[in-house]
Design a protein that fits this description.
There is one protein chain. Strands 1-2 form a two-stranded antiparallel ribbon. It folds into 2 domains: about 475 residues, no CATH class; about 70 residues, no CATH class. The chain starts with a helix and ends in a 9-residue tail after the last helix. About 70% of the residues lie in helices and about 0% in strands. Helix 7 runs antiparallel to helix 17. It is globular, with a radius of gyration of 24 Å. Strand 1 and strand 2 form a beta hairpin. The chain is mostly helical and about 650 residues long.
Length: about 650
C-alpha cells in the first residue's frame, strides 16, 4: 500500500507543480534534437546535462527524462520524409517508411509511427514500474553469454534483410562488421586498420557518420537525379487517422515489439529497432510489401524504439549500471543533481524513481501530440521539388556528421562511405545488413573477449537460458531462409548480361582487397585482438570468392546479378543524370568547406546549386541561404557547437560564427 501511495502522490505532484513545465521543455528540446539528423538521444543528453547543474533537482530530473523519452519519436520525421535517419534508433524505420512517403503516404506513415511510439513508451514505463519489484533476479539471469546470443539473434536478421541475394546480404554484413573493427581492439587497446596512422580512426568510425553515409547519401543522390519532388502525389487525405487505425489493427504486434524494445534496452546491446523489424517480417503472413512501403514495417521498429528507453532505465535505476550510451549520460546527470541510482535509491528515494517513471510515460504522450501537430506541415515538404531542399538537407547531414566527433575526418568519412553506399545500393548489397553488422560487431567482440576470460566451454553451455536463446536464433534463421519473399532493401534491378558484369566484378574485387588488408593488418596483434577480425574477414572472403565465381561464370539468371544502373535513362524512376553528376557537386561542397569554412561554403553552394540546378530567383536563394545560416548560428550559440573552418580562417581573422 505504501508503494501505491507513493506512485499516486508523485503523479499528482508532477501534474500540480511547475515540474510539468520543465518536463514539457525537455520534450520540446528532445523533439527538435530528434528531427536533426545524427544528433540522437546520446548527443542530446550530452548537450543538456551541463545546463541542469545548479537547477532545482526535480526540475532538472523532468527535463532530462523528457528529452530521453522522446528523441526517438522526433527522429522519425526525416527518416520517413527524406530517407535520412534522425538517429540510430530510426534506421529500421526507413526501410518501409521512406517508400511510403514516396507513394504519397507520408501522413499515414508518420501517424502510425507516432502512435506506436507513444504506446511503446507508455508500455516501457509500465514494464519499468513492474520490474522495480521483480527485475533484480531477471536482469542478473542475463549474463555475458545470454547477451552474446541476443547479439547473434540480431545478426540472424541478415537472412531476412538480404534482398534478392542472401549471398550479397551476408557479404554486406561481413563488410559492415569489418568496418566496425576499425579502431582500438576491446581486448587489448591495440589499434587496427588505421590506414597510414590516422588519429581520427583510433576510436573507430562514429555510428552517426556511418548511418548518414549509408542511408542518407545515396537517397539524396537518387532524389536529385529524378529532378522532382520526393512524392509526385499529394499527401493522402485522411492519412493521419488511417495511421492510428493501422496501429490499432496491429495492436498485438505493437505490444510484442514494445516488449522486444524493453528487453534489448535493459541490456547494453542496442539495435532494438532492427530486432523488432525482423520479428515483424517473420510474424507476418503476407511479406510481399515489406521494403516497398508496408506500414507494419514502421509500427514495429517505432514501438520498440520508445520502449527501449524504459528498458534501458531498468539496470540504470536498479543497479546503477546504464543500459546504453544515453542512459549512461542520464546516470551522470542524476549524480550531478544529487541522486545516486541503485538499491539504496529504491529504498530511500522511491519518490524520485517513480517521478522518473511518470515523466517517461507523460513525455511520450506529449511528444506524440507535439509531433502530430507539427508533422502535418512538415509532411508538405515532400511535394516541394527536391532541388530546393537539397542544399538544406546536405547542410544538415554534414552538420550532423561533423557533430559526431567535431573532426574533419567526420566529413571525409561521410563522403567516402557515401560513395561506397552508392555502389552497395547499385549492386544490391543490403545496406541494412551492412549496418546491422557494423552496429553489433563491437558488442559481439567485447562479449566474446570477456566470455573467453570467464567461461569454459562446459560452463557456457550449462546455462539454460543460453539454450533457449540458441533455439530462438536457429528458429529465426530457419524462418528467414525458408521465407520465399525477401525484403527488397535495394529495390529491383535489370539483370546484367555477360558483357555488363565488369563493374560488379571490379566492386567485388575492391571489397575482397579491403578484407585481405584487414587480415594482414592484425597479424602482429595479440590473439584476442585479432581472432574476430580474421574469422570475420576470412568468412566474408570465402563468400566473396563464391560470388566472384558466379559472376565470372556469366550466368545472368543468378540472383547474385544485380545492377540498378543498367538502363537508368529508360528506368521507371525517370533519372535525368548519372549518380556521379551529383557526387561531383557534393565533392565541390566539401572542397569549398576545406578552403573557406563550413558557413561560407554553405552560402556559395546555395547560390551555385540553386541557380544552376533549381533555376531559383536570386532573392529566394538569398532568403533561403540567410535563414539556414541564421538557424545554424543559433544552434552554435545555444549548444556551443563550432563549425568546420577552412584554410581561409588560418590566414584571415573572421568574426563569429565564421571564424574560429
Amino acid at each position: 500500500m505504501e508503494v501505491i501511495s507513493i506512485i499516486g502522490s508523485t503523479f499528482i505532484n508532477l501534474l500540480t507543480t511547475d515540474t510539468l513545465l520543465f518536463l514539457i521543455l525537455g520534450v520540446l528540446v528532445g523533439t527538435v534534437i530528434g528531427i536533426l539528423p545524427a544528433l540522437g538521444t546520446t548527443a542530446g543528453m550530452a548537450l543538456l546535462v551541463p545546463f541542469v547543474y545548479g537547477m532545482e533537482p526535480y526540475h532538472a530530473l523532468a527535463m532530462m527524462t523528457g528529452l530521453l523519452a522522446v528523441v526517438s519519436t522526433g527522429d522519425t520525421v526525416t527518416s520517413i520524409l527524406m530517407g535520412i535517419p534522425g538517429a540510430a534508433s530510426s534506421q529500421a524505420t526507413i526501410v518501409d517508411g521512406f517508400p511510403m512517403a514516396k507513394k504519397g503516404e507520408a501522413g499515414r506513415a508518420l501517424s502510425a509511427a507516432y502512435f506506436s511510439s507513444m504506446i511503446g513508451g507508455v508500455f516501457g514505463a509500465f514494464i519499468l514500474t513492474a520490474f522495480l519489484l521483480v527485475a533484480r533476479p531477471v536482469v542478473l539471469a542475463f549474463g555475458m553469454g545470454e547477451q552474446l546470443m541476443l547479439a547473434l539473434l540480431g545478426l540472424s536478421l541478415v537472412s531476412i534483410l538480404s534482398g534478392n541475394s542472401l549471398l550479397k546480404g551476408l557479404i554486406a554484413c561481413g563488410l559492415g562488421m569489418t568496418f566496425g573493427m576499425v579502431g582500438s581492439a576491446p581486448a587489448s587497446g591495440e589499434f587496427r586498420m588505421q590506414f597510414g596512422g590516422s588519429t581520427y580512426l583510433t576510436d573507430g568510425l562514429p555510428l552517426g557518420v556511418v548511418a548518414l553515409a549509408i542511408f542518407a547519401f545515396p537517397e539524396i543522390i537518387n532524389l536529385l537525379r529524378r529532378g522532382s519532388s520526393i512524392t509526385e502525389q499529394p499527401i493522402v487525405k485522411g492519412g493521419w487517422a488511417q495511421g492510428v487505425r493501422d496501429v490499432m489493427d496491429n495492436f498485438w504486434l505493437t505490444i510484442r515489439c514494445s516488449a522486444i524494445g524493453c528487453l534489448i534496452g535493459a541490456l547494453p546491446i542496442g539495435g532494438s529497432g532492427w530486432l523488432a523489424y525482423g520479428h515483424t517480417v517473420q510474424s507476418s503472413k503476407d511479406k510481399s510489401q515489406f521494403g516497398k512501403g508496408d506500414v507494419r514495417g514502421v509500427i514495429g521498429p517505432e514501438a520498440a524504439n520508445n520502449a527501449d528507453t524504459g528498458g534501458s532505465l531498468i539496470p540504470t535505476l536498479i543497479f546503477g549500471i546504464p543500459g546504453g550510451g544515453s542512459a549512461a549520460i542520464f546516470l551522470g546527470g542524476l549524480l550531478l543533481i544529487g541522486f545516486t541510482p541503485g538499491p539504496r535509491m529504491l529504498a530511500e528515494n522511491l519518490d524520485v524513481t517513480y517521478t522518473i517513471i511518470w515523466c517517461v510515460a507523460i513525455a511520450n504522450i506529449f511528444g506524440a501530440g507535439i509531433c502530430f501537430l507539427l508533422s502535418g506541415h512538415i509532411a508538405k515538404l515532400t511535394a516541394i521539388p527536391f532541388s530546393y531542399l537539397a542544399p538544406f538537407m546536405l547542410t544538415i547531414i554534414m552538420f550532423g556528421a561533423y557533430n559526431s566527433t567535431r573532426d574533419w575526418g567526420d566529413l571525409i568519412a561521410l563522403f567516402s562511405l557515401g560513395v561506397i553506399a552508392i555502389y552497395l545500393k547499385r549492386f544490391g548489397y543490403s545496406r541494412p545488413a551492412f549496418l546491422i553488422g557494423f552496429v553489433l560487431q563491437n558488442v559481439v567482440e567485447s562479449l566474446l573477449y570477456r566470455i573467453l576470460q570467464v567461461y569454459s566451454l562446459e560452463s557456457f553451455f550449462s546455462r539454460p537460458i543460453i539454450w533457449v536463446l540458441i533455439g530462438i536464433v536457429v528458429f529465426s534463421l530457419v524462418i528467414g531462409l525458408r521465407s520465399k519473399t525477401k525484403v527488397e532493401t535495394e529495390g529491383m534491378a535489370h539483370e546484367a548480361s555477360a558483357t555488363q558484369i565488369m563493374p560488379q566484378v571490379a566492386f567485388l574485387a575492391l571489397i575482397m582487397g579491403f578484407l585481405v588488408y584487414s587480415v594482414v593488418d592484425v597479424q602482429n596483434l595479440v590473439f584476442l585482438a585479432k581472432v574476430l577480425p580474421i574469422a570475420t574477414s576470412v568468412m566474408a572472403l570465402t563468400l566473396c570468392t563464391l560470388g566472384m565465381v558466379i559472376l565470372l561464370r556469366r550466368n545472368p539468371q543468378s540472383a547474385f546479378f544485380h545492377d540498378g544502373e543498367l538502363g537508368w535513362k529508360e528506368s521507371d524512376e525517370g533519372y535525368e543524370a548519372s549518380p556521379f553528376h551529383y557526387v561531383w557537386w557534393m565533392m565541390g561542397f566539401l572542397l569549398a568547406t576545406y578552403l573557406v569554412g563550413f558557413l561560407i561554403a554553405i552560402a556559395l553552394f546555395y547560390f551555385a546549386f540553386m541557380r544552376i540546378k533549381a533555376k531559383a530567383a536570386w532573392w529566394s536563394i538569398a532568403l533561403m541561404a540567410g535563414c539556414t545560416l541564421l538557424v545554424l548560428s543559433i544552434i552554435s550559440y545555444v549548444f556551443l557547437v563550432d563549425f568546420p573552418t577552412g584554410i581561409l580562417q588560418d590566414f584571415v581573422w573572421m568574426p563569429w560564427p565564421f571564424g574560429r
